[in-house]
Amino acid sequence: MNLPFLLARRFRKSREKTRYLSFISASSTIGIGLACAILIILLSVMNGFQKALETDFLSMVPHVEYQAAQGGLQDWREIVRVAEQHPGVKAAAPAIKLSAMVQEPGRFRGIQLRAIDTNLEPAVSGITRYLPAAAWQDFIENPDGILLGKGLADALQLRVGDRINLIIPQLQQGNALSAPQRINAEVVGIFAMGGELDFQQAYIHLAAGQKAARIDTEAASVRLALHNVYAAPAVAREVASEVREYAFIHDWTRTEGHLYRDIQLVRTIMYLVLVLVLAVASFNIVSTLIMVVREKQSSIAILRTMGASPKLIVATFVYQGSLNGVIGALFGSLIGTIAAALLPDLLGWLEQALSFSLLPAELYFISSIPSDVLVRDVVLVTGVAIATSVLATLYPAWQAAKLTPVQALRGQ
User: How much is the pTM?
Assistant: First the structure.
C-alpha cells in the first residue's frame, strides 16, 4: 500500500521535472485552493443571511397574524388561548396595525404603526432586544409614549423626549375617507435592528391604538410566534380551523417570503458553481499528469520490467495527481474558513474607513454582511474538491498503465 505513494512522492519531487510542468502543477493546486476558499466564504455569507432572516428580521415581523376582516376582533383572548394550545406556537399577543403619516419639512412620510400590549409583546417580538431596558420600562410607564426606529428618528431629527404628531387616515363604510385622527406622542425610546424596519415601524400602546383606529374592541389582530418559522403556512391553517372568528390569515412567507426564496436560489447556484469551478480547476491536474506520464515513460518501463503491475502504475499516478487536489483543498478550506469567520469584522472596518455602506439600511433587511460558517459546508466543499481531483487522475493513470515496456522505451 505504501509503494505507490512513495513512488508518487518521488515522481513529484523529481529533478527531471521542467519549470513549465512545475508551474502547471502549482497552478492546479492554487486553483483548487482558491475555489474552495471562495466557495466556503460565499456559502457562509448565504448562511449568515438566512440566520439573520430567522433570528433578527422575523423577530420583528409576525410569523402568523390573524387580522379582523372589519373593525376589531370580538374576542382576541379566545384566539390567543386556541393558538397557544397548538404545539407549534410559542406565544400569541394582540395588536392593532395602523398606517400613519408624520410631517417632515416640505412633505409627509408614511410609517407602519403597531399598537401592542406591553405585557404580551416581548413573548412574540424581539423589540426588547433592540433598545435599552430603561427605554422599554419608560414605554411601559408612559401610555402616550412611542418607540421609533433609529432610521426613522434620524430622518425626522427626533430624540428621546421629543414629541411627534401622527396623522392616521380613517375609513368609513364604503371606503369613504373621513377626518383623520391625530395623535401626539412622546418619543420614549429608539430601537435599532439594523435594517429597513428601522425606517418604517413605530410602536404605541394598545389603548392608544384602539382610540386612533376608532374601534370598539381592544384589538384588531393577533400575532403568533412559532417554534419553527418555516412551518408558518401549515400552523396558520391548523390554528385557523379552530378559530371561530372571521379574520384574514397572514404568514411571513406571503409578505416576506421572497427574501428566503432569494437566499435559497443563490445557495443553489453556489452549489452548482462549486461543482463547475472545481471541475475546471481539476483540468489542470489532467494536463499536468498527462505531461508527467510522457516524461516518466522510461521510469514506467523500468517498473514494468521489474514486475510492477498495471494496478500499481495506476495507483502511483492517482496518488501523484491527487496530492495537488488534496493539498489545495485542505489549505483552501482552511483559508476560506478563517476568512469567512473574519469577514463581517473586516468589511465593517472597511466601510468605516471608506465611509460607505455595502447594504444601506433603508433598502435591505440587514445593514451589514453576515457570515455563519457551517461544518457541513466546509466538509462538502473539501470533499467535492478531493473527489474531483481524484477523478481527474483516472484517465492519465489509465494511459500510463497501458504502456508496455517496449512502447515506453521507444517513447511511443
Answer: 0.80
